[in-house]
Specification:
heterodimer, A: 506 residues, alpha/beta, Rossmann fold, 3 domains, six-stranded mixed beta sheet, 17 helices, 33% helix, globular, B: 407 residues, mainly alpha, ABC transporter involved in vitamin B12 uptake, BtuC, 2 domains, Xylose transport system permease protein XylH (chain B), cell membrane (chain B), transmembrane (chain B)
Chain lengths: 506, 407
C-alpha cells in the first residue's frame, strides 16, 4: 500500500498561539485512519489546513496528496481532487429536500435550468449506496440526525470522494445509528474510499481504525498500527493526556466550609427537540471556599446544565431543586437566580456576556444597576468609581473605563465579564470555560481571581474542557457525559487518565 | 517614544482633539447640518424662514413628529420598529372627535381616555412582539392597516369637527404673558416678557448643567470635550435658544406645544441617559442575550417601549387633530416614515443599542426645516420627497462610513 496523503511537519501559528507545531500525518490508500486528541489539541486546525480553509502559504510544511505536492488555496480546490470534510455541525439546508441538498452548488443543470429527472435519479443511486431508504424529495429536517449524516456522506460521494474526513460523526448519533454509520465506512473502504475519522469514542476507534494518530498540544505524539501494535484505550488515553503540569496554577489553601449550593434531581429537555432529554438526574454540591469542576466533552451537557440552573436560560420542562444555604432557592428567572446569589460567566463572552458596543463601565454595572442608583436614577460618579475599582483590582488593561469593550483583548474582555459578576456579589459563581481563547498570562491572572473569590468564602463551579486546568484548580471534579454526571473525583484521586476513562467508558 | 515622554504638550493635545472630534463627528455634524440647512433656506426664502410667525409654525408643524420621535427612539434603540404610529395618530384623532363632537364628552374626560386607548394599542402590539417574539415589523404593519381601517370606520369616511376651543388650545394655544410689567420696563409694544425670560433662564440652565457635567467628567477622568468645542457649542445652543425665544416673544409668545414638547424631550433625555430603565433599554438593543443573562427582564422592557410608543402616538394624534381642528380619515398618513427618518437621521442604528434623544429631536428638526423651507420656496411635492429621501440616505451612509473608518 502506498500513502494517499502525507502531511509533513505542518506548523500553523495564529497571533500569539502556535496551534500546530510540526505535525505529521500519513494516511495510506484505502485505510480508515483515526485522529484522536483532546479538545483544542489541533485536530480541527490540521483538517482545515488539509482542506484549504487555511490556504497554502499561511502554514509551514508540505502536503503531498496522491504522490504530488498539493497547495490548496480554498475548499473548492481540495474538493476537486476528492478531499471532502463532513463537519460535526452538519452543513445541510433543513428546509430543502435531500436531492436539493445533495447537489447544492453543484446542480444537475443546463444554462441554469435544473434537470429534476436526472437530479432524482442520481439521488436515488447515491442514497442506495449509503443505505438510506428515503424518498429524494423528503425535506432534510424531517429525517433524524443519523440519516442526515448519511445524506452528508452521499453528498461527498456525489463529488467523487477519495479521502473522506469525518469530524466527530457519531457524537450526536444513537448507538444504532452509530453502528450503521461505522458499517458504512467499512463498506466504503472496501470500495476504495480512504477515510480519516476524528473521534472521542475510543471503543469505536478501536473497532474500526486501521491506524490511529494521537495529537496533543499541536504536535503528533504517536501513530499506532492495528496490525503491528496493540491499540488499547489505556494506551491512547495515556498519549492523549500525558503532559507535565508545571507551575501553571497559583497556589491556594483549600479549606471548604458548609454546602453553599446543592442541585438535586435536575432534569432538562431540549428546547426544540422536546423528546430529547439533555440533562438526566444531575445532582451536585458546591461548598463555601471550594472550586468544583465539571469535566466532559463538548456537547456533554455541561453548559446546558449551568444555563438551565441560571434562571432557566436553557431548555424546557426543567425539573429539580436548587438549594442555596440549605434553603430551596427560586431560580426560575435570571433576575431571581441573581437575587438568590448565583452568577454565570458564559463560555461565549462576545454573544452572551458583553454588550460589545458599550463601555467597560456600563458592562460592569449591568447586572447590578440598583447598587449604583437611587430611585432608578443612576449616579454616574458612583458607577465610575465602582468600575475604576475593578479595573485596578483585577488589572483590566485599558486606558480607562470609558473604553468600549469591543476594542479589548479576549483576556481583558473576560476580566470585564468577571467584574460584572463580582459586582453582583454572588454566593456561587458558575464559570463556563473561563479561560477559553485567552493567552497564558491572562489565564494565570484569572486563576488568581478565582482563588481570591473562594478565599472570600464564595463557591465556584468551573466548567472546562482543559483537563489540566480542572486538575490544577479544583478541589473536586464531576465528570459529565451525555447529560449525566457519571463520576465524582476528589482532587487527590483525580487524574486525566481517570477522568478520560470515566468519559470514554460510560 | 522619546518625544512622546518628554513633550506631552502640543502633540498630545492635538491628537486628543482630533481623536475627540473623530468620536463625536456625528453629534457635531448633525447640528452643523441643521445650521447649514437653516442658513440655506434663510437665504433662499429671503428671510422668511426665521420670521417669528414662521418659527412658531415650525414648532406647530413638527411638534407631533418630535413627540413621536421620542418614543420611536426608544423602540429603535431596543432593536425594533413601529410602523403603526401614523395610523394610531389618525385613529386617536378620530376617537377624540367622536367623543367630543358627537358624544359631547368634556375634554378632561376625552383626553385621558384617548391616552389610555393609545396605551392599550401599544400594549396590544407590544404583547405579540415581546412575549411571542413576532417581528415588530410585521405586528406594527398589521397595526398600521388595522388602525387606518378603524379610523375610517369611526368617522364613516367623513371629516368630523370642529373641536371645542379649549381642545384646540392643546396645539394652537399660547402661554399668556405672565410677566406683563416687563413690557413697560423696556418700552416695547408687542413683546411677550415671559417668553424672553424663559428663554434666558433655559439658556443659563444649559450652560450651568454643561459646566457641572464637565467638572464631574474631569474628576472621574472621562474624555473631556476640548474647551474650545465646549464654549462654541454652548454659545451656539444658548444663543439659538435666546434668539428663538426673542422671535417668539415678538409674535404671540410661547406655543403650548413647544412647552409640552420641551418638557417631554427633557424627561426622555433624562430617562435614556440617567436612569436604570434607560440603561437597560440600551443594553437590550445592544445585545439582547447578554442583557437577559444579566438579569434584565427583556420581554417586559420591550413591552414597555411599545406601551410608551402607543401613549406618545396618542398624544401626537390629539395634538394633530387639535391643530387641524377636525378629524379626517387621512390624518397621520405616512407620519411613521417621517418619525422613523428623524430617528435615523439623528444617528440611531437599525440594529439597536445606539441613538440619542437629542439626536432624534435634531433629526426631526432637519426634516421639519426642509419641509417648511421647500414649501416656502414653492418646490413641488415631487422634488420635496426626492430630496428628503436622499438626505435620509446620506445621513445613514455617513454613519456607516464613519463606523467602518473607526474599526
Amino acid at each position: 500500500m502506498k500513502p494517499l496523503l502525507e502531511m509533513r511537519s505542518i506548523t500553523k501559528t495564529f497571533p500569539g498561539v502556535k496551534a500546530l507545531d510540526a505535525v505529521s500525518l500519513t494516511v495510506m490508500e484505502g485505510e480508515i485512519h483515526a485522529l484522536v486528541g483532546e479538545n483544542g489539541a489541533g485536530k480541527s486546525t490540521l483538517m482545515k489546513v488539509l482542506s484549504g480553509v487555511y490556504p497554502a502559504g499561511s502554514y509551514e510544511g508540505e502536503i503531498h496528496y496522491d504522490g504530488e505536492l498539493a497547495e490548496f488555496s480554498g475548499i473548492s480546490q481540495s474538493e476537486a481532487v476528492g478531499i471532502i470534510i463532513i463537519h460535526q455541525e452538519l452543513a445541510l439546508v433543513p428546509l430543502l429536500s435531500i436531492a436539493e441538498n445533495l447537489f447544492i452548488g453543484n446542480e444537475c443543470a443546463k444554462r441554469g435550468i435544473i434537470n429534476w429527472r436526472e437530479t432524482f435519479q442520481r439521488t436515488e443511486a447515491l442514497l442506495k449506496k449509503v443505505g438510506l431508504s428515503e424518498a429524494p424529495g423528503t425535506l432534510v429536517d424531517r429525517i433524524g440526525v443519523g440519516k442526515q449524516q448519511l445524506v452528508e456522506i452521499a453528498k461527498a460521494l456525489s463529488k467523487d470522494v477519495r479521502l473522506l474526513i469525518l469530524d466527530e460523526p457519531t457524537s450526536a448519533l444513537s448507538e444504532k445509528d452509530s453502528q450503521a454509520l461505522l458499517g458504512l465506512l467499512t463498506e466504503l473502504k472496501r470500495q476504495g474510499v480512504t477515510s480519516i475519522i476524528i473521534s472521542h469514542k475510543l471503543n469505536e476507534v478501536r473497532s474500526i481504525a486501521d491506524r490511529v494518530t494521537v495529537i496533543r498540544d499541536g504536535a503528533t505524539i504517536s501513530t499506532l498500527d492495528a496490525r503491528g501494535d496493540e491499540i488499547t484505550e489505556d494506551r491512547i488515553i495515556r498519549d492523549m493526556v500525558g503532559r507535565d503540569m508545571a507551575q501553571r496554577f497559583p497556589a491556594r489553601d483549600s479549606n471548604p466550609g458548609d454546602v453553599l449550593m446543592e442541585v438535586k434531581n435536575w432534569n432538562v429537555w431540549h428546547p426544540e427537540h422536546t423528546e430529547r432529554q439533555v440533562i438526566r438526574n444531575a445532582g451536585l454540591t458546591v461548598r463555601a471556599g471550594e472550586v468544583v469542576g465539571i469535566a466532559g466533552l463538548m456537547g456533554s451537557g455541561r453548559t446546558e446544565l449551568a444555563m438551565s440552573i441560571f434562571g432557566r436560560s436553557y431548555g424546557r420542562s426543567i425539573s429539580g431543586e436548587v438549594l442555596i444555604d440549605g434553603v430551596a432557592a427560586d431560580v426560575s428567572t435570571v433576575d431571581r437566580a441573581i437575587a438568590s446569589g448565583l452568577a454565570y460567566v458564559t463560555e461565549d463572552r462576545k454573544t452572551l456576556g458583553l454588550v460589545l458596543d458599550e463601555t467597560i463601565q456600563r458592562n460592569i454595572t449591568l447586572a447590578n444597576l440598583p447598587q449604583v442608583s437611587r430611585y432608578g436614577v443612576i449616579s454616574e460618579a458612583e458607577e465610575t468609581r465602582v468600575a475604576e475599582g475593578y479595573r485596578k483590582a483585577i488589572n483590566i488593561r485599558a486606558p480607562g473605563v470609558f473604553q468600549k469593550v469591543v476594542n479589548l483583548s479576549g483576556g481583558n474582555q473576560q476580566k470585564v465579564v468577571l467584574s460584572k459578576w463580582l459586582f453582583a456579589d454572588p454566593k456561587v459563581l458558575i464559570l463556563d470555560e473561563p479561560t477559553r481563547g485567552i493567552d497564558v498570562g491572562a489565564k494565570y491572572e484569572i486563576y488568581g481571581i478565582i482563588n481570591a473569590l473562594v478565599a472570600q468564602g464564595r463557591g465556584v463551579l468551573m466548567i472546562s474542557s482543559e483537563l489540566p486546568e480542572l486538575l490544577g484548580m479544583c478541589d473536586r471534579i464531576y465528570v459529565m457525559n451525555e447529560g449525566a454526571l457519571v463520576g465524582e473525583l476528589a482532587a487527590a484521586e483525580a487524574s486525566q487518565e481517570r477522568i478520560m476513562s470515566f468519559i470514554v467508558r460510560s | 517614544m522619546a518625544t512622546d515622554t518628554t513633550e506631552p504638550g502640543a502633540a498630545g493635545q492635538d491628537r486628543s482633539v482630533s481623536h475627540y472630534l473623530a468620536n463625536h463627528l456625528r453629534d457635531y455634524g448633525m447640528v452643523l447640518a441643521l445650521i447649514a440647512i437653516m442658513a440655506f433656506f434663510q437665504f433662499t426664502t429671503d428671510g422668511t424662514l426665521l420670521r417669528p410667525v414662521n418659527i412658531t409654525n415650525l414648532f406647530l408643524q413638527n411638534s407631533y413628529i418630535i413627540i413621536m420621535a421620542l418614543g420611536m427612539l426608544l423602540v429603535i434603540v431596543a432593536g425594533h420598529i413601529d410602523l403603526s404610529v401614523g395610523s394610531v395618530v389618525g385613529f386617536v384623532g378620530a376617537l377624540a372627535a367622536v367623543m367630543m363632537v358627537e358624544w359631547g364628552w368634556s375634554i378632561y374626560l376625552a383626553v385621558p381616555a384617548c391616552l389610555v386607548v393609545g396605551i392599550a394599542i401599544g400594549a396590544a402590539q407590544g404583547y405579540w412582539i415581546a412575549y411571542w417574539k413576532i417581528p415588530s415589523f410585521i405586528v406594527t404593519l398589521a397595526g398600521m392597516l388595522v388602525f387606518r381601517g378603524a379610523s375610517l370606520w369611526l368617522l364613516e369616511g367623513q371629516s368630523v369637527g370642529p373641536f371645542p376651543r379649549e381642545f384646540q388650545a392643546l396645539s394652537t394655544g399660547f402661554i399668556p404673558d405672565l410677566l406683563p410689567f416687563l413690557k413697560g420696563l423696556f418700552g416695547v409694544e408687542r413683546m411677550n416678557g415671559f417668553a424672553i425670560v424663559t428663554g434666558l433662564l433655559i439658556a443659563g440652565l444649559i450652560i450651568w448643567l454643561g459646566l457641572t457635567a464637565r467638572a464631574r467628567n474631569r474628576a472621574y477622568g472621562m474624555v473631556a470635550e476640548p474647551m474650545a468645542f465646549f464654549v462654541v457649542r454652548n454659545l451656539l445652543v444658548a444663543g439659538a435658544i435666546v434668539f428663538v425665544s426673542y422671535k417668539l416673544a415678538t409674535f404671540r409668545g410661547l406655543p403650548n406645544v413647544l412647552i409640552t414638547m420641551g418638557i417631554l424631550t427633557i424627561i426622555y433625555a433624562f430617562l435614556t441617559e440617567s436612569t436604570t430603565l434607560g440603561r437597560r433599554i440600551y443594553a437590550l438593543g445592544g445585545n439582547e442575550k447578554a442583557a437577559r443573562l444579566s438579569g434584565i427582564r427583556t420581554e417586559r422592557l420591550t413591552f414597555l417601549t411599545f406601551v410608551n410608543m402607543g401613549m406618545l402616538a396618542a398624544l401626537a394624534g390629539l395634538i394633530f387633530a387639535a391643530r387641524l381642528n377636525t378629524a379626517t380619515p387621512k390624518a397621520g398618513v405616512s407620519f411613521e416614515l417621517d418619525v422613523i427618518a428623524a430617528v435615523f437621521i439623528g444617528g440611531a442604528s437599525m440594529s439597536g443599542g445606539v441613538g440619542k434623544i437629542v439626536g432624534a429631536v435634531v433629526g426631526a428638526f432637519i426634516m421639519g426645516v426642509m419641509n417648511n423651507g421647500m414649501s416656502i420656496m414653492g418646490i413641488g411635492i415631487d422634488y420635496q420627497q426626492v430630496i428628503k429621501g436622499l438626505v435620509l440616505l446620506a445621513a445613514v451612509i455617513f454613519d456607516v462610513y464613519n463606523k467602518n473608518k473607526q474599526s
